[in-house]
Amino acid sequence: MLKDKKIIIGVTGSIAAFKVPSLIRLLTKEGALVQVVMTPAARDFVTPLTLATLSGQPVLTEPFNPDNGEWISHVELGQWADVMLIAPASANTLGKMASGIADNLLLTTYLAAKCPVFFAPAMDLDMFRHPTTAMNIEELQSFGNHLIAPTEGELASGLCGAGRMEEPENIVNILTEHFSKYWDFPGKKVLVSAGPTHEAIDPVRFIGNHSSGLMGFAIADEFAERGAEVVLVTGPTNCQVSNDGIKRIDVVTAKEMQDACMEYFEHTDIIVMAAAVADYTPLKAAPEKIKKTDGELKLTLKKTTDILAEMGGKKKSGQFLVGFALETENQLSNAEKKLKNKKLDLIVLNSPKDQGAAFGVETNKVTMITSDLKQFEYDLKLKLDVAIDIVDKIKELAV
Ligand code: CTP
Hints:
Elements: E1 6-11, H1 20-29, E2 33-38, H2 48-55, H3 74-80, E3 83-89, H4 91-99, H5 105-112, E4 117-121, H6 125-129, H7 131-142, E5 146-147, E6 151-154, E7 160-164, H8 168-180, E8 189-194, E9 199-202, E10 205-207, H9 214-225, E11 229-234, E12 247-250, H10 254-265, E13 270-273, E14 280-282, E15 301-303, H11 307-314, E16 320-326, H12 331-341, E17 346-350, E18 363-364, E19 366-370, E20 375-377, E21 381-382, H13 383-398
Parallel strand pairs: 1-2, 1-3, 3-4, 4-5, 8-11, 8-13, 11-12, 13-16, 16-17
Antiparallel strand pairs: 6-7, 9-10, 14-15, 17-19, 18-21, 19-20
Helix pairs in contact: 1-2, 1-8, 3-5, 4-7, 9-13
The structure holds cytidine-5'-triphosphate (CTP).
Cytidine-5'-triphosphate is lined by residues 193, 254, 273, 275, 277, 279, 304, 306-308, 323-326, 338.
């Protein structure tokens, strides 16, 4: 469950920092990718060298790399992580987190993090009992952060009571349980297409389109993150998948995309055709480079097979088929027509006329239409977040 999960461990100045090496070891053994961010005070309790060695990553403390002055982006860090875990969380850091103070890299990363945040307090009995600490913990929980409550026992001061950081094994179990909640598609076979196709005119020229592939890649990653077995058939693109469990098949032409998709179609539960497949291809590609002449150049094009329509015709019960529609006019009625004609279960409509939507940009604004013609309109979002909405909707309807 933790394989390839990206986890930031924020370490603060508490004696319980001595448990962090075991925690990192357990997480990396499960295949998690761990990035440690320490507060300056934490370095007095456990060495950055130990944590860097165990996590296999340099430990980050300063917003600038002291060796080369390079800026370390807390925003990128916050967006990279699937989970941020602050362990141990000292009373001081809890107070700063609760009141939005951002005077070190751990705190700026916390404020920028888009992922779920867990915090495991560790402090002496009286500090833990203090009303300010209780208030800060309550405040942090009200923001949606998850408390990993301290346990009772003997504390470093010699006092006995609540304040011991939860044991690393139990923290790993809590994170595993968290990720298993998102394990929506275990064993489901999913086929996603992405990117443009290129149709050769001659050996050096082709007919293509502006599809970047971002949307399809984000959908493939989201399915894989949630337990599906994903095959991604992609046209030419610079995109990379994040999840290395995805089987990627690179194609160039509409015919190659058709062949690759149809090879997997029969044994697939969910199909999402996000590719911008060429509708026409040159009747015959010239074997040599076409030379310029004085007159006009006419190209004769023939229709390609509509892969999605072919799938709609062959769909068996239990298969769930999703198409995209890119429309510049009569958007809803055209999308509904495609939904019916291609026998889809869901269509995702996007309009290049919406600002910030469709080809070549990182954002998209979509309306999803289900087979009973119910419409669901979404705000302009990052394609990564649109992918979550699409996969959530499929989960609701198909699983
Ligand atoms: N599609 C396909 N095979 C094609 C063309 C399109 O599988 N040869 C799929 C796309 O992947 C997309 C859906 O069909 O999921 C709709 O594509 P779009 O280009 O919007 O519509 P078309 O059906 O091609 O119609 P038109 O271009 O006339 O709007």
